[in-house]
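Good morning,

Attaching, inline, the backbone tokens for the sequence recovery test we're adding to the shared suite. The designed sequence is right after.
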């Protein structure tokens, strides 16, 4: 399974180490990412114009890949603005305050609801649905916005996506690559997903409570309040909705999203299709509520709210696009932007690095478990989580054949590591949905997740060794 590594691979790896070091030190990495794209382009094209153009084209590529997420976040924010302006959100969340009374209940309640919803529809649409309804309740009872983002992120993009027991996209990819039945990989993943989930969420919750008591907690707020439209006195008066209409809308809006959930289930809508349904519903809610609230100024205010939503969306995503542009080069983006300059057998820079690592480590069960965790984490660096899990399955098959250990357990371990790192708990642009809905910095969310996820991966790897 060996592959020839080129200068491009080593340069990419060096910049990854530098970027991660800067992120940990809470420093901005935009300039380093641009430098990395430029240097890689210079090596690939051997022309100054090609490398300079590559920087811009990589930004376009990253924006195109992230556009669906930018849109759903922008639309949900726009809808939330008019709901807050009219007080509908207060009426809508009032019944929930009876059940969610403490920060702890809010953290675990949001997390568990997010996990169950994500099993059926994947995390991105689940974040949009749950964040819009439960975030105000959680903040009101004292859970920091960043704490709510952690709960949604760890339970949704972590636990639910790494197991993927309902949709079964992840276990099918890894099982096919390892030559195993999907059921065997899913069965082997159950104890690993449970251990990883418990260790990570309990650690994150304990660290949050500890830092709040110490006064060292940083919420990393990226508030959208300054984006709320400035209304004249006449418009403020027009933005009032009668109590009866407000109550009716407070019932109708959750029902519409519930209908979305039923439609996703009945029509088998997942991922982008499910997100599009939620986004379209939010647009119509925005239009109807704005027309009712602002009356003769409604047509103009619909546009105003949408603009404010898009401004917020791009404000949140702006710092992330250069970083995403660099890391996307680790996958198919490199060939698309700079041509076929990698070795013929290459499956992308990060996958090549994973294969090279597997080729130099000794073959035994314990080392196999550690290697699968590292390979899963490396291939997750592109922010997808799914792009490298086929490689994890292939490497697991290699170790299992050489050491006569459990192929299904190794395959499941690689899957868990890849998705926890790349599926949306550590890579800043992958966890943007939860960060943006909660109005917090994706970088601060990634930093809060870092220690719990690394501790979880370490404990899960040790457990996997005993299961081999």
């Amino acid at each position: 399974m060996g592959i020839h590594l080129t200068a491009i691979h080593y340069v990419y790896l060096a910049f990854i180490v530098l970027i991660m070091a800067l992120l940990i030190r809470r420093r901005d990495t935009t300039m380093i990412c641009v430098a990395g794209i430029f240097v890689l382009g210079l090596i690939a094209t051997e022309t100054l114009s090609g490398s300079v153009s590559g920087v811009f084209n990589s930004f376009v590529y990253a924006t195109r890949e992230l556009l669906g997420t930018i849109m759903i976040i922008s639309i949900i924010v726009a809808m939330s603005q008019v709901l807050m302006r009219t007080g509908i959100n207060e009426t809508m969340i009032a019944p929930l305050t009876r059940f969610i009374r403490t920060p702890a209940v809010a953290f675990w309640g949001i997390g568990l609801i997010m996990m169950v919803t994500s099993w059926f529809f994947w995390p991105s649409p689940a974040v949009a649905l749950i964040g819009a309804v439960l975030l105000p309740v959680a903040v009101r009872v004292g859970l920091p916005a960043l704490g709510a983002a952690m709960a949604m992120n760890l339970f949704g993009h972590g636990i639910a996506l790494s197991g993927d027991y309902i949709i079964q996209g992840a276990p099918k990819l890894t099982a096919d690559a390892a030559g195993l039945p999907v059921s065997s990989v899913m069965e082997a993943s159950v104890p690993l997903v449970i251990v990883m989930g418990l260790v990570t969420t309990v650690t994150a919750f304990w660290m949050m409570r500890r830092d709040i008591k110490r006064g060292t907690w940083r919420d990393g707020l990226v508030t959208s309040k300054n984006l709320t439209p400035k209304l004249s006195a006449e418009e403020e008066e027009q933005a009032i909705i009668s109590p009866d209409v407000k109550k009716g809308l407070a019932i109708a809006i959750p029902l519409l999203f519930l209908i979305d959930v039923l439609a996703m289930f009945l029509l088998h809508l997942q991922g982008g299709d499910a997100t599009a349904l939620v986004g379209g519903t939010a647009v119509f809610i925005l239009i109807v509520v704005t027309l009712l609230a602002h009356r003769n100024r409604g047509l103009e205010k619909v546009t105003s709210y949408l603009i404010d939503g898009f401004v917020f969306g791009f404000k949140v995503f702006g710092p992330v696009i250069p970083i995403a542009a660099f890391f996307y080069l680790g996958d198919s983006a490199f060939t698309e932007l700079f041509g076929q300059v990698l070795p013929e057998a290459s499956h992308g820079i990060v996958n090549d690095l994973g294969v090279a690592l597997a080729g130099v480590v000794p073959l035994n069960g314990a080392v196999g478990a550690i290697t699968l965790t590292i390979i899963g984490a490396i291939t997750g660096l592109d922010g997808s989580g799914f792009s490298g899990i086929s490689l994890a399955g292939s490497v697991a098959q290699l170790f299992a054949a050489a050491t006569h250990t459990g192929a299904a357990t190794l395959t499941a371990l690689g899957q868990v590591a890849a998705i926890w790192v790349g599926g949306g708990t550590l890579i800043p642009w992958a966890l943007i949905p939860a960060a943006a809905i909660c109005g917090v910095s994706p970088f601060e969310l990634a930093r809060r997740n870092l220690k719990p996820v690394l501790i979880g991966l370490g404990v899960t790897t040790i457990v996997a060794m005993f299961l081999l």
